[in-house]
Design a protein that fits this description.
Layout: E1 3-8, E2 14-19, H1 22-30, H2 36-39, E3 45-51, H3 55-66, H4 70-78
Antiparallel strand pairs: 1-2, 1-3
């Protein structure tokens, strides 16, 4: 099951990515084997996730979110309409 997600890093920046396993990907980010961007900004926590029907759609959604400015990403996160990130 592909997902597009947003992490909030320890320095209050956002990181956007996609995965087929949210729990494993979050664990990888937090142990330093995730993306280079997050390695120096640990710990990170999941603040937003969306299920996508295909990997292609997850990648496209990731690209669209990455083009948003910080205020738009914050609005997306606060707007709800995502998975329950606290349970992942």
């Amino acid at each position: 099951m592909p997902y597009t997600y947003i992490l909030e890093c320890a320095d209050n920046t956002y990181y956007t990515g996609w995965t087929t396993n949210l729990a494993a990907r979050l664990a990888a980010h937090n142990c330093g084997s995730g993306a280079r961007y997050t390695r120096g900004r640990l710990p990170v926590h999941l603040v937003y996730a969306e299920y996508q029907p295909t990997v292609s759609e997850a990648c496209k959604r990731e690209a669209r979110i990455k083009r948003l400015d910080r205020s738009a990403k914050t609005a997306l996160i606060k707007g709800g309409n995502s998975l329950d990130c606290k349970n992942i």
